[in-house]
Amino acid sequence: MTGAAVTELRRRILSGAVAAGEALRQDALAREFGISRIPIREAFRQLAAEGLVTLHPHRGAVVTSLSAEDIAELFDLRAMLEPDLVRRAVPLLKEADFARAEATLAAYETAIRHHDIDAYGELNTEYHLSLYWAARRPQTFELVRMLLANTDRYTRVQLARSDEATSRAIREHAALLEHCRQRDAEAAAQLTLQHVLAVRQDLLRMSQPAPTEPQEQPAA
Fold first, then answer.
1. Do the Cβ atoms of 124 and 140 come closer than 8 Å?
2. C-alpha dihedral, 88 to 89 to 91 to 94, nearest 10°
3. How far apart are CA 192 and CA 126, in angstroms?
């Protein structure tokens, strides 16, 4: 019961069906899903662990807003570290690494086609790391792993709300793998930088409040 509630509430939050700052009420959701408040409460805890909601004693769970400051900082760090990792990794990648990356990319594209929000966040991280690990920079690799985990929520929001972003992600991931196969380290690094900065730009735009329409003035 909890799993189904988590999946549906996550879908609503990431797709924007539930707005940032909106409170999720235990009683109303329990009635909607036909379950008790206990699994709803557990669903709130899981969503809070993912950074999708914030728990408040008297308001229940409130949908977390996209933080422009966090987006800028996290993606700036990724833009500094990931191009260097892939540049170092390209000459050292083996056929088994390419096979793993191809399989992950195929699963990622399938997840996007089926709107499987849970899967494509994990597969996006797995794909990038599969191309970075050979760089032999374990400290940087672990930092990037942490950054990918911390940006997963934001990446899923972007993909869930923008068909253009999903199409671009598929194209750029495929092109990145081809650059790596061709041992073109500089092209791979440049595309990685472009890819990270494009996501950053999309998310910063999404984090801005929607403009309010001017109200018509009554006729004099």
1. no
2. 170
3. 15
CATH number, domain of 48, equals 1.10.10.10
The predicted-structure confidence for 113-131, as pLDDT tens digits, reads as follows 888 877 888 899 999 999 9
Q: Which residue has the tokens 């191309």?
A: 131
Residues 121 and 188 in one domain: yes
CA distances from 96 to 91, 93, 129, 181, 182 (A): 14, 8, 14, 12, 15
Total-model pTM: 0.77
Tell me the pLDDT tens digit for each residue of 130-181. 999 999 999 999 999 989 988 888 888 888 777 888 899 999 999 999 999 9
Strand partners, 56: 60
Number of domains in the chain: 2
In a domain, 219, yes or no: no
Residue 47 structural domain: 2-63
* Rounded distance between C-alpha atoms, residue 206 and residue 70, angstroms: 13
Look at the block and give the residue holding tokens 């009683």. Answer: 27
